[in-house]
Design brief:
About 40% of the residues lie in helices and about 10% in strands. The chain has about 425 residues and is α/β, with parallel strands linked by helices. It folds into two domains: about 300 residues, Alpha-Beta Barrel (TIM Barrel), CATH 3.20.20.70; about 90 residues, no CATH class. The strands form two sheets. It has a seven-stranded mixed beta sheet with strand order 1-2-3-4-5-6-7. It has a two-stranded parallel ribbon with strand order 8-9. A hairpin with a 5-residue loop joins strand 1 and strand 2. The N and C termini lie far apart (about 45 Å).
Length: about 425
């Protein structure tokens, strides 16, 4: 492999690492005659998890880290003095195919700094995906970052070759975005989002008439917000996420705890470490909206604009609403089971299925997978040894359930996200 290209890859993979929206969607591209590879199951190689739990290796790289913008929060901002590189379309295509043939990767996650103009940059990204699909018959996963301000024609073309498209909101409130990135606005972000949504819906209608019509971004779209760089509350962030999820094609909103990469800029907060606990709580709240049938205003409101950092959002909601408990585990409907701390989606389904045959008690629930350490204070069932939240007080239950800080040293970018209760 060309040493010059590998040096470029080292630089551009390093520049790409701050984009957290690198997750395969679980979209399936099975092997086809005349096509190379499928999505089933070093530098720039990241491991992401699909929605079905599979670990997928992606080449995560930028086309270039040169940029015409000078965003305060970005490592690749125009005014930063750092190693710069640009891969040509052919170099990136060859790299992807070489890594794919060696079984290093199962797909490509491609972003870019903006050079010359959004359309010029987007056209180069599209050419990479197009050459991979049409010239090399590449059938792996492709995630393309749509450039804010790119034309509808280029976004539409990108959707014909990419499994997923994404455009990052970055800062939830436009006035704060203008403070840190005066050259950007939300209009240029939301326009490509609409183009992607329209493309997916039009493709879906076309495929009803012609089953072999091309699919448009079959894995939908995603976005990312930076947490902690500006003064937004968790309410601001989650209300925007909720609004985005109402669009039929928005699959994931990613939250990235702000990493202090440009410490010299006085517009930015002086953080010693990224706000990873807050990031974790936002993901848990996001999970409640997507899978647990919670409305955003139940999680955050004017009285509680920020998530509790000591306990998870579902437990926080339960302690604020003791009148909803205890829940009879043998009679409650599925929707109410989902609201019990310690009960996940899988265990709620198993409870509904199992109680048809016999009454469930403490030990049966434990076998099912219910986290009884939490759930015992919010339920009634056969042989329950503990008092409930109403027999005690929410404050007492809270003090019993607050997790003690783990003193074990962990990598600053790694955090265990427990979404099952």
């Amino acid at each position: 492999m060309n040493e010059n290209v590998l040096n470029k890859l080292k630089i551009l993979a390093e520049s790409a690492k701050y984009d957290v929206s690198c997750s395969s969607s679980g979209t399936v591209r099975s092997n086809k005659p005349g096509m190379l590879g499928n999505t089933v199951g070093g530098w720039g190689i990241c491991h992401s998890f699909a929605e079905d739990g599979r670990c997928i290796s992606l080449l995560k790289v930028m086309l270039t880290n040169y940029c015409i913008y000078d965003c305060a929060y970005c490592i690749n901002r125009r005014s930063n003095d750092l190693p710069r590189a640009t891969l040509s379309v052919s170099e990136l295509v060859d790299l992807t195919m070489e890594f794919y043939r060696r079984n290093y990767i199962e797909g490509l996650f491609l972003s870019s700094g903006v050079v010359r103009s959004p359309d010029y940059t987007m056209e180069r990204l599209v050419r990479v995906a197009k050459d991979l699909r049409t010239v090399h018959r590449f059938n792996g996963y492709i995630h393309l970052k749509s450039i804010p301000g790119a034309s509808r024609e280029l976004v539409n073309e990108a959707g014909l070759y990419a499994d997923r498209l994404s455009v990052n909101v970055e800062i939830p409130k436009e006035e704060n975005l203008k403070l840190l990135a005066p050259e950007k606005d939300h209009k240029s972000v939301y326009a490509p989002m609409r183009y992607i949504q329209q493309g997916v819906l039009e493709s879906s209608e076309e495929r009803k008439k012609h089953r072999h019509a091309p699919r448009f971004a079959p894995a939908g779209q995603s976005t990312q917000m930076i947490v902690g760089a500006t003064a937004e509350t968790d309410k601001d962030i989650l209300f925007l996420s909720s609004a985005l999820y109402k669009g039929p094609t928005m699959r994931r909103v990613y939250y990235s705890g702000y990493i202090s990469v440009n410490t010299y800029d006085t517009r930015l907060p002086a953080l010693k470490q990224p706000p990873l606990v807050r990031e974790n709580r936002l993901y848990q709240a996001d999970w409640l909206m997507r899978f647990y049938q919670f409305k955003v205003e139940e999680i955050v409101d004017d009285a509680y604009p920020d998530l509790d950092l000591e306990i998870d959002p579902k437990l926080s909601w339960a302690l604020r609403h003791p009148e909803q408990f205890p829940v009879d585990i043998n009679r409650a409907d599925y929707e109410m089971l989902l609201r019990i701390p310690g009960v996940g989606v899988k265990s709620a389904r198993l409870i509904v299925a199992s109680r048809r045959f016999s009454k469930l008690g403490f030990y049966e629930l434990k076998k099912i997978g219910v986290v009884m350490k939490k759930a015992q204070y919010f339920i009634t069932c056969h042989e329950l040894p503990m008092k409930t939240v109403n027999e005690m007080t929410p404050q007492t239950v809270r003090s019993l359930l607050i997790t003690k800080p783990n003193k074990k040293k962990v990598d600053e970018r790694q955090l265990l996200l427990d979404f099952h209760d």
